[in-house]
Amino acid sequence: MSAITADLISSHQLTHDEYERICRILGREPNLTELGIFSVMWSEHCSYKSSKRHLKKLPTESKHVLQGPGENAGIIDIGQGWAIAFKIESHNHPSFIEPFQGAATGVGGILRDIFTMGARPIAVMDALRFGPLEDPKAGARNRRIVEGVVSGIAHYGNCFGVPTVGGECVFDPSYNGNPLVNVFALGLFRHDEIFYGRASGVGNPVIYVGAKTGRDGIHGASMASAEFTEESKQKRPNVQVGDPFMEKLLLEACLEAMRTGAIVGIQDMGAAGLTCSTCEMGSRAGTGIEIDLMHVPQRETGMTPYEIMLSESQERMLLVAENGREEEVFAVFRKWGLDAVEIGHVTGDGILRVKDHGKVVAEIPNRPLADEAPLYDRPYTTPYRPAPMEGPSFVTAGIQEDLKMLLASGDLCSKRWIWEQYDYMVRTNTLQGPGADAAIVRIKDTGISIAMSLDGNGRYCMLSPREGTKLIVAECCRNLSVAGALPVAATNNLNFGNPERPEIMAQLVESIEGMAEACRFFETPITGGNVSLYNETLGEPIHPSPVVGIVGLMHTGEPAGIAFRNADRAVLLVGGIGDCDAVRFGGTQYASVVVGKVWGLPPALDMDFEKRVQAAAREMVSAGMAESAHDIGQGGLAVALAECCFGLGVGAEITLDSELRPEYLLFHEGPSRVVISTNNEEAIVEVAKRHNVPVVRIGTTWEKTLSISNRGVRLATMEVEALRESWENALPAKLSVS
Amino acid sequence: MKFGVVVFPGSNCDHDAWYAVTRNLGQQAEFVWHDSNRLGDVDAVILPGGFSYGDYLRCGAIAKFSPVMGAVKKFAADGGLVAGICNGFQILVESGLLPGALVRNAGLKFRCMELQLTVATSDSPFTNACRKGDVLRVPIAHGEGCYVAEERVLDELEAEDRIAFRYVKNPNGSQRDIAGVLNRGRNVLGMMPHPERAADPLMGSLDGLSVFTSMVAAAALKK
């Protein structure tokens, strides 16, 4: 047996203390295979060792929640015996190293998390962060990454047959060396169709199904738990290769096999592959698992036990069947042309025992391996904040030019180039697809629809992780509310830098605390999610980038949508004009794009007021009083109004009455505001009054131009079509620079 | 009337087609598995969209060898109605049931969008519910939908009135804006756009239903 050296320990990213703990658990020194197994299970990616004690602060329960964190995905009840499973997961590091496959397998991984529970995936969304496309140094690489990531997502999702219904895409220099690819998936099933990853029943066979095991992805989980260095690029062979067709077969076969009633438990092989699935399934059920690697289907010859246990080859599942009913399971997989092999059985001793041709090569107690990774209370100080509190003085060179510039900027321009590559309609349930505040997917023949939205804002969170994260949760709930849906549950993806740096750890802690407060207040418990740390390249951290995905429930019906539909409608601002000052303006898109600086604090949020605005907007939309409804977010009022005009080319004459300076008035990003067009102004005013929310009439829709004035001073008059073209063409133009 | 919806491994618009003809149209439908060499008692066949066998080779190139395609060929030869949608169209050209080929979109990207089609002929079992020149709103979703054929073949298609649909604004570089074609017997249609996605009031358009109502009318006439 090879001796474990200090070098070997550190190359597995284990500390000396962690190694000693392993020796205590085993009562001896581990062999190399065991060391590898511990290193992946105790990696940040799998064990959440830096974040777990803070994640406990998040609310996880409500009357809707059937399954909270800890399983492959959270589950909520949506009524009539139906339930949905949903979760978000990151594939940041692989997507930087190999954008196409990195993003594709990110989609594949989260889809497996959903259907391993028995749910059929019905929607996907993506939150993407890239370095700026026009960056003088990194621009060319950033453009390649965008092309690769988007086509990778399209390739996998389209072929698998799940609609990609929404998401968001943001550009910032902090993502130059570290793009973020967070994928959200949601699946549908009946309450009595839920499956868990539990290896129950001593003597039951353990069955391996799906793709063969190769050398790809070995140490993916620990790669995702380290900073990027110059050597990282050499890790390309670590990135897995996805086969969406195999995954589609696996989906159909697994759901069909589940219907036989012969399956006891099932789990996908994702990060840490066979290792993770065996020890977690055993640990959850309080059992042991014994497997012999000679039965594992292998793509390459001469693979060692170490390689087989750590491989992250895609499209594989592990399941436990009822003893004596294996043949029913095998028959289904044969029908779909997939490998299904018995590789071992469930034992009563709580040990993960791995054999190779009968010889024991690893023997580890399941529970300490899966659930007793060392937890760290990493020190934290005050959050890293590379921005001043005071900003420069500035005066607009022309509101009209400012608006044009903002609408053509990376974050605010049309993302059609991206979402047209995604099949967002397959399954014929998409009532509202990409480009809206929230995506809406109906559940056929039930009258129930699910609204969903993904939101993040790294700039706000850089200025204040706590306030920024609360704003994200508020905005996400607002997006659902303007669609007419009631937000009910959330999933989170926490993308941060190196937690071993106290000022980065402080970002993480404050962000989680802000999220906990907001999710509790908006009654959207976190049912699961993902933590991605060490998002740094050469010591430069990304902006703290928590992303939340929130789902809401509503009755099926024609959505109101963002777009003004008709001329001669009242344009109302529910929630009022809002307020802003120099410090609170520093986090806006205007500050970043037009002034070229970021400073101060994110906009102020009054959660109680926000909740009332949301309730009012939800009522207005679901009662059909609003012909259109759009949340005011990044870019402020003027950008929101332009977006309302773009959909159908209907313009508006906006006449404001405010003492705010024009830049603040039109571009501040104060939350709790919704633009509504209606032919029933009285009803809207009545609802607003009942919710104790101000509503201001700011204008009237009309043909073809967007005109804005304040107190008699004309600020902008623009042709909607010309403005729409520059908004629409901006992204393709940025990408085609060579 | 009973539709048979063929399911290949990798088909992913099979349920959508099934839903459109049963729930939206009120007809009967059943799924036909790819390794079956019989179609049963169906009155018409739909080859749905998707990525049959993964389509890692040319789209539809593997599907043409599946047992069910033998049955489909025989069904078509006997005058049965066969509609291939998206991947189904690709399979029909690969199988030689329709002329031409479908290659990568001119922009080299997958494109999913709503667009407008003109009905180029009403003289077919798939368009008899329309008038020539009608404009339909139907979505597309494909990466390899650029229709190409030799000039001679294109001339022939036009001369024989076998172009079923044309794009109003060509999204993929298809020659002569072709979105759908008929075989010489006019009982086999291939089209890249997805009529089954425009068959429900909540999906934003009902225009796609006319393809299926035309088929129902044609089948009734035959009986």
What do these coordinates show?
The complex is a heterodimer of chains A (738) and B (223). Chain A has 738 residues and is an alpha+beta fold. Chain A has a seven-stranded mixed β-sheet. A seven-stranded mixed β-sheet of chain A has the order 23-25-22-26-24-27-28. In chain A, helix 10 (244-259) packs antiparallel against helix 13 (326-335), helix 18 runs parallel beside helix 19 (502-521) and helix 21 (607-622) runs antiparallel to helix 24 (681-690). The radius of gyration of chain A is 26 Å and the shape is globular. With 223 residues, chain B is α/β, with parallel strands linked by helices. Chain B has a single domain, classed as Rossmann fold, CATH 3.40.50.880. Chain B has five helices and eleven strands. Chain B has helices spanning 14-24, 67-77, 87-94, 151-159, 209-222, and strands at 2-7, 28-33, 44-47, 81-85, 101-103, 111-119, 135-142, 146-148, 163-167, 178-182, 188-191. In chain B, the strands form two sheets. In chain B, strands 2-1-3-4-11-10-9-6-7 form a nine-stranded mixed β-sheet, with helices on both faces. In chain B, strand 3 (44-47), helix 2 and strand 4 form a beta-alpha-beta unit. The longest helix of chain B is centred in the C-terminal third of the chain and has 14 residues, at 209-222. Chain B starts with a strand and ends with a helix. Chain A binds chain B through residues 151, 154-155, 158-161, 243-246, 248-249, 336-337, 419-428, 430-431, 442, 444-445, 556-558, and chain B through 9-10, 12-13, 15-16, 19-20, 23, 49-51, 53-56, 109-113, 139, 141, 143, 194, 196-197, 199-203.
Write the CATH homologous superfamily of chain B.
Class I glutamine amidotransferase (GATase) domain
Low-confidence stretches of chain B: none
Radius of gyration of chain A: 26 Å
Overall form of chain B? globular
Structural class of chain B: alpha/beta
Strand coverage percent of chain A: 15-25%
